[in-house]
Write a structure and sequence with these properties.
Length: 257
């Protein structure tokens, strides 16, 4: 699968919780983010991070730990900051989808990045000043605060979509069966009509109308051969169970001895 542009760098400013770092690493791996930069993390333990975010050793090995946000963004041509609230100063505020598209568009010019702040108070105004645009993830008015990893996940997903990740094919079922044939459908309908007669379902209903509705339901479902066989078997077993209890469909007589 060919993706558009280059993946942005994920920058975490002063993350306080190792689990959040590990969660961000796992999310980055999920959505094709290839570089992480940590600015003065409270703790860093590559072994523990990989223990939480399994199979991410290659990404963990590439993590850069820096002393200032200025260092982390020095080579970037475009930077978006995640924030939970609008600022009094006039700033470029854009939604995550628009921000993702702009990051992808600008990535042809050089490295781009998105920045997430501290778990407790986010990014300072001075840190936001180093970013070209701010993005606010829309939430309810009553509860706006998102967990650090949640915010990174939403933004990473939007970037993945903007790069064309949605075009990735869905893996087909390993044992996919062909579509049910007309003959399989007719056998299914016949056996279900017999099952419904066995339980006297048609006492107050017209069999033709019920059967026509069942046909429409099953045709709309688009059954494959295995599914049609399974559903037919259910109808057959209903009749067999009743026969073992001495009940036969109305109009059918016991076979001659």
């Amino acid at each position: 699968m060919r993706l558009t542009g280059q993946p942005p760098i994920l920058v975490l400013q002063s993350p306080q919780d190792l689990v959040n770092i590990a969660s961000a690493v796992r999310i980055a791996k999920n959505f094709g983010i290839e570089q992480l930069r940590l600015v003065t993390p409270a703790a860093f333990d590559a072994y523990r991070i990989e223990g939480i975010a399994h199979n991410t050793a290659d990404l963990v090995d590439r993590i850069e730990i820096l002393e200032t946000l200025e260092e982390a963004l020095r080579d970037c041509v475009y930077v978006v900051a995640l924030t939970a609230r609008a600022r009094t100063a006039k700033r470029s505020l854009i939604r995550p989808r628009e921000a993702a598209a702009e990051l992808v568009r600008r990535s042809v010019e050089g490295p781009v990045a998105f920045v997430a702040g501290r778990e407790d108070k986010g990014l300072s105004n001075e840190e936001l000043d180093r970013c070209h645009a701010l993005t606010i993830i829309p939430t309810t008015e009553e509860y706006r605060s998102l967990n650090l990893a949640q915010a990174v996940a939403i933004m990473s997903y939007e970037i993945w979509l903007a790069r064309g990740g949605e075009a990735a094919p869905i893996k087909p079922h390993r044992h996919r069966a062909g579509s049910a044939t007309a003959d399989q459908h007719e056998r299914l309908f016949a056996d279900w009509e017999r099952a419904l007669r066995s339980i006297e379902f048609f006492k107050t209903r017209q069999p033709e109308i019920v059967q026509r509705s069942l046909r429409e339901i099953f045709f709309r479902a688009g059954l494959d051969g295995r599914e049609a066989t399974l559903i037919r078997a259910i109808g057959i077993e209903i009749v067999r169970y009743l026969e073992r209890k001495g009940v036969r469909p109305p109009g059918e007589t016991d076979p001659a001895p």
